[in-house]
Amino acid sequence: MDALSSHWAAMAVVVLALFAGAAALLLLRQRDRIVRQAAELAADVEALNDRLWTLADSEEHYRSLIEAQGDLIVRRDGARIVYANGAYAALLGLGEAEVVDSVAQPRLIASRPALALDGGARVFDECLATPDGERWISWVETVVPVALGRTVLQRVGRDITARIAAEQDLVEARARAESANEAKSRFLATVSHEFRTPLNGILGMSDLLGDTGLDPEQATYVRALRTSGEALLGLVDDILDFAKVEAGKLELVSERFDLGLLVETVAELMAPRAQAKGIELAAHLAPDLPSHLKGDRDRLRQILLNLVGNAVKFTETGGVGIRIASEGSMIAIDVADTGPGIPEDRRQAIFEEFEQADNSPARRHEGTGLGLAIVRRLAVLMGGTVDVEGRPGGGSLFRVRLPLSAAADAAAPTVPDWRGKRVMLVSGSPFGASFLRETIAATGALATLAGDAEQAMAALQAGPRPDAALVDQAIGHDAAIALAEAARAAGVEDCLIVLSPLERRQFGSPRDAGFTGFLVKPVRARSLYERLSPRPAPVAAAAQTPSLYPHRASRPRLSVLVAEDNEINALLATRTLERFNCAPVWVRDGREALAAIAAGLNGTGPSFDLVLLDIRMPELDGLAVARAVRTLERTSPGAVPLPLVAVSANVAEDDRVAALAAGMDDCLAKPLDRAALQRWLDRVGAPQALTLSA
Ligand code: ADP
């Protein structure tokens, strides 16, 4: 081989070696890159794995949370289940895997109306049949988006079986309680009604016995009998009233009534009790009150009687004051007393039934503990309120507020203008004096108060001379008369004596005693204004107490049929009628009554001027008799309608309405009110009775 050739060969080797080196270098670089990329990929895979774990962990976390909540979740595409959790699958008695892709549905037993929520969700409850029995599920149903713009219907449900059962238990318990309560009220009403009948017999008989010329000792016993009977009747009436209010049986009536007269009757009824205890009973009607109101007079009287009765019962010294005024659209009635008051922590409780201020057995006093419960219920029924507070000087103040409006034709209040006049009051009474003072102050006059006769004498001597003096007889009879003389001597124009109703009967002529007139407690503003302006009303105008039997002699002897199954009540009614100079005929049931009336109508028996029909009677009740009589009259030519008066121990408004609807002319309460009976006898005894229509 020549040198050139070996040179080229060497060159080629070098070139090859160079190529080989370069290729090796490239390969090395490539390998490094691949190794690096592989490491990066491994790191990515690891990161992804980590995320996957985290996601799985988080999914498991939420899943376990949801499972722990016990909520049922199902997603459906149409009817096909695309997802359901274990709780939902269990509802169907299947495994999760079995329900997916199925159209399984639990059987629907009942459902409750759906409620639409904001955001398109719907809430509803279903009762479903499940392997564990009936279950109530409350569902929230929403439409949720999934991939590719598709949506599925998702329901998330919660088992509310226990809640529904509790609700049902509650409804049943309430229904049971209500029916038990109704039964109790019915029982109370029936029992107290049944009590009233014999009690009225006892009271009526003691009345009759009292009229039979007893010696003083016997008369005392009869009075005691009557008082105890009345107390018992009061309790029975309380229970009956309560039962009626409780059972919602009490209908209010709206009638026009004289407020002043109402307060007077309450004060008059309570005055003997107050007087017997030596405490004062005063009433004040604000001068700006309308004369007549519209509302349920009897229920208002009941409220007043309860409150005033309690105040008198619990007060041993001082007195009881009734104050009535307008307060916006309300009539405000305050009954205040100077009694022991009611501890603050018992002021709510005493309005509950059967509660007394001190309930400890040793301290319980007579009474049912129902009076105030009735007062509150009546006040609420009338749309008003009642509460109690303590009085600054001790004692209680019961405050009733009732939305009673003035009657259409109520007289506008008239307060005279006495500006410049001076009126001296002589009274030691805590309520009476302050009430009178207010009444006088309302006229613009100056009212001065003397607490006793001495102060009054001193004031008369010291001057200035009053224009009028009002002297409460409670300061002492002789002292009052001496004051009247001193007042006249001092030139006092009017000097009135203020008397309790009982004192009025015993006082004799106020003029003879040196007074220019008198006022009867509780003094009404109107009477005071009338007596003093422009000049005192003549004393002779004093009202006479009406006699119970004024027409006894002048009226013809009336024939009255008494239909009554209770012998004692019948005896009472017939004896009372005899005292009214009537000829009573007694029949003991409705059939007999109808036979007697029919005989009178067709001339085969005696006719009657008046018929008293007990509503509850065996054979034929009073209402049926009345209907039959009216039918008979329509078919008997020339028959004059016979006055039929229902007599009932139960004089709720619906009894009255039923009696009138049956053709009766009136409905009287048992025991027979003598005055009401007398009015009927006067009506049928008078010649115009013939025009009386059925
Ligand atoms: P009763 O008088 O039949 O017990 P009430 O419901 O009328 O029932 O009264 C409940 C209780 O409230 C009374 O027992 C008494 O303790 C208390 N009470 C009511 N009125 C007065 C009052 N004017 N002064 C003091 N306590 C009163």
Fold and architecture overview:
By secondary structure, the chain is α/β, with parallel strands linked by helices. The protein has a six-stranded antiparallel sheet. Strands 8-10-11-13-12 form a five-stranded mixed sheet, sandwiched between helices. Strands 16-15-17-18-19 form a five-stranded parallel sheet, with helices on both faces. The longest helix is centred in the first third of the chain and has 67 residues, at 3-69.
- How many β-strand runs? 24
Number of helices: 18
Rg, please? 47 Å
What are the distinct ligands in this entry?
A: adenosine-5'-diphosphate
Mean pLDDT across residues: 83
Shape: elongated
Main pleated sheet: 6 strands, antiparallel
N-to-C terminal Cα separation, in Å?
A: 168 Å
> What structural category characterises the helix and strand content?
alpha/beta
As a percent range, the share of strand residues is: 15-25%
What is the percent of helical residues? 40-55%
Low-pLDDT residue spans: 535-554, 687-694
The spatial strand order of the largest sheet comes to 2-1-6-5-4-3
